[in-house]
Amino acid sequence: MRIEIVNTGTELLLGHTLNTHGAWLGAEVFKLGQRVARQTCVPDGVAIREVLMEALGRADAVLVTGGLGPTSDDLTREITAEVLGLELVQDATALASLEAFFAIRQRPMASDNLKQVLIPRGAQVLPNANGTAPGVYVAANLAGRPHAAIFLLPGPPRELYPMFLEQVVPRLRSLGGAAEPPELLELKFVGIGESDFHQALDARLAAIPGLEFGYCARIGEVDLRLIGGSAAIQQARALALECFAPQFVSDDGSSLEQTVVRLLGARGWTLATAESCTGGLIANRITNIAGASAVFTHGFVTYSNEAKSGLLGVTAQALASHGAVSEPVARQMAEAALVVSGADLAVAVTGIAGPSGGTADKPVGTAWIAVAQLGEETHAWRVFQPRNRQDFKLGVSQAALDALRRCL
Hints:
The protein folds into 3 domains: about 5-175, Molybdenum Cofactor Biosythetic Enzyme, Chain A (3-Layer(aba) Sandwich), CATH 3.40.980.10; about 185-250, Alpha-Beta Plaits (2-Layer Sandwich); about 255-405, Maf protein. About 40% of the residues lie in helices and about 25% in strands. It is built from 14 helices and 17 strands. Strands 2-1-3-8-7-6 form a 6-stranded mixed β-sheet, with helices on both faces. Strands 14-13-15-16-17 form a 5-stranded mixed β-sheet, sandwiched between helices. α10 (about 280-285) links the parallel β13 (about 270-275) and β14 (about 295-300). α3 (about 45-55) packs across α4. The two termini are about 45 Å apart.
């Protein structure tokens, strides 16, 4: 089937609200053995007419989200009926459900809510147990001419997601027939660029019959997406690990920080962090993971030189001779964090986030990372992340967490 999504909502295009519907619906549709062919986002109001007319002539099923509320700009229901040439009629079941919604909450119902129970004649109501706006299912060809099946769904996720799973999934299964979804495997790699993958793997992956592959690049990491039969996926996985085993993080969806917490737990080790330029981001990422309390002991945020000296004992000589962003200072931070915390492993970072503060030998984006391990030699190295402040912090935290992963 060709399935398309139409998201409505001015707030989505203004950037006030993150549009997460496409990602969620795409994943759920994939579980049915189907794929979303296209997603379109339009503002509230009449803009939906043009995109709906296009989609109806191109798709087998169209999922429309939003625009089912009681306000004047909620016109999805009305425009759908207009495009199909169907009359809007009040649905008695939907009306009873709407009245019960307000009665149980002991709230008066505004007359404007009544527009929510207007349904194109012949369409089916999709009950909404979590809100006032029922969904609508317009079967294919209901208007007496060829057109896609249409699902009108509420915009709020707390209403949309249950309705999709309970009301839309069975109908899509019926429309599309029983389909066994292909296998999907995502491998996460850190410390390597997308172009390196392309150069090393593209031709070899393309030669595997029945395999679909692609990449998703983020700061400091790349996901390799494999879709196909089991044999094709395993062959591709082996090729990727043959080339990039040291950079491999996970193939079960685990993030870099989840992997670090898991490896710490497996060894029975504890971790402390000493951060300057990242402002506690490394500790934050670690403590976002369930089970971190068993492996994480201390997080030192020593942003100023005084904090580095007062909390971690970084020497005045090191600060004066080499500067806060230097190998000696990073080493002293990591080693002090190890001693003070009593942890088995410690990582320290110090750098220049910018936009000012850089020099010829230490430009903005320079950072030093050090890893200290109980009973072992401390290792330190320079990284360069010439990005905006937020991305610099993320990039340095990626490099630090990857250093911990490699150590573990």
